[in-house]
Amino acid sequence: xxxxxxxxxxxxxxxxxxxxxxxxxxxxxxxxxxxxxxxxxxxxxxxxxxxxxxxxxxxxxxxxxxxxxxxxxxxxxxxxxxxxxxx
Length: 87
Prior knowledge:
Shape: rod-shaped
Radius of gyration: 37 Å
Distance between the termini: 125 Å
Strand content: under 5%
Structural class: mainly alpha
């Protein structure tokens, strides 16, 4: 049995259609991968920014603790002086 030109055209059309479907699938997978990679990069950037902010807050709190510690010592000194003056 020999293949006719019509048979060959049908086979070629089926192969071309399959190739087009595979190309479309590959493009969708590539786009999804690009989106995933962009999302991961954005997450890393956000994590870096957040880490920087956390460090800033830690420094501020450390400074505040030192200032408050000084204020507490000053207040205790004043109370002692007042107690001595009243005694």
